[in-house]
Amino acid sequence: MFYVFGFERVGVVMGDLYFVDPDPLPRQEGAERGVRLEVRLVEPGELKGSIYSARPIVVDRPVWRADLLEAVAGPPGSLDRAHHHPAFRGWEPGPRCFVEGLATRPLDWVGARLSDLDVLLEQAGMAAVDVGTGDAEALRQAVPEIMDALGRLLDRVKAGQLARASGDEELTSARIGWL
Predict the structure, then answer these.
(1) Where do the domains of the chain lie?
(2) Which of 27, 98, 140, 152 is most solvent-facing, going by the fewest CB within 10 Å?
(3) Cut 0.90: pTM above it
(4) Would you call 91 exposed, middle or buried from its count of C-beta atoms within 10 A (0-12, 13-18, 19+)?
(5) DSSP label at 171?
């Protein structure tokens, strides 16, 4: 499942994720499942046909990421591996940052971050990025709708409907999901 909320130059994307890191950090071994949410730059493409043609849409560079993950071996809904990445180097995320409140109140925590785009951009080292003049306010107004979708995704992961491995084989490396 994959959601996109697009504004003028900034978008929020989210989807379920099943992940097995072939080279995990200590205490991060084993499969993970959950929801990944990213703030990304977005851009409308040029029409490829008539004025009625579908418009290409580019979901581009990541700005910030929240990984609402948990160990597959643990209890559903624990979010024991929930973390965020405040900055990226190009397409590569910085280190995992585990913070208080993210695992216990993920909707409140993520909603608060999305409500202040200027701070997210500054923390990501992208304060000078040319975003739309109305992006911060449009994103802030859409936070309740985004949190509703995020909550539904988390509920479906907890119920075992999303963020699952395909097949019965033991995986040593996997990334199953849009993001």
Answers:
(1) 2-176
(2) 27
(3) yes
(4) exposed
(5) P
